[in-house]
Amino acid sequence: xxxxxxxxxxxxxxxxxxxYELFLREYNVDSWEVPxxxxxxxxxxxxxLLVRTAPQLPAKMTYISLNLDIDQxxxxxxxxxxxxxxxxxxxxxxxxxxxxxxxxxxxSDNQLVTAAQRFKTAxxxxxxxxxxxxxxQLQRVELLNPFVHEYxxxxxxxxxxxxLEEIIPNLVFWRNCAQRxxxxxxIEGVESKQDLLLLSHYHADMFQGFxxxxxxxxxxxxxxxxxxxxxxxxx
Length: 235
Fold this sequence. Notes:
The chain is built from seven helices and ten strands. It is globular, with a radius of gyration of 17 Å. By secondary structure, it is of the alpha/beta class. The protein has an eight-stranded mixed barrel. β1 and β2 form a beta hairpin. The longest helix is centred in the middle third of the chain and has 13 residues. Helix content is 28%, strand content 24%. It comes from Pediococcus ethanolidurans.
């Protein structure tokens, strides 16, 4: 059995929850776990879960984003599955986050551009997750810019550090890139009120992090009343 867990995304002004980033989790024996192999879940399974989850979301949580690994992102079957259910996601604006995971397939620049263009043409917002980390460096960002709606800068990818001030120059670089290219800019990994106070000066559009909200279980329409939602290390 699979379900989504959602971490709230907060607008900066006013600071309030406006949506969720969705994380796929699998029930194993007696707890929910991060799947060891995301590739075993088909596009149809994930799309069906979206349809059953979306009507249960709070009315104000209209912006949801779904992570796709790079090999899923370039697979047209995933676009087709999400486009087929788009009209059923009433009051929900679905974005696709291009993420990275160890052991993924090698994908060409042409495949990435084609996939991003197709998602945009189909009416989906594309989010580049973890800019400045892994392969989502400036070269890839510039390559996909015409089709991307949002950059996400993940503070947790740079921990541990002695002080948050250490990464501010890097954060400012990407904030400026977002402003120059007219993209939304999200800072994730906000873990304390002190983080939030400092980061609020850098004009992000949205924030995510444990200080604002940890991932929570998102029920479906057909969940049994005794569903178990406890687990360790779900993020």
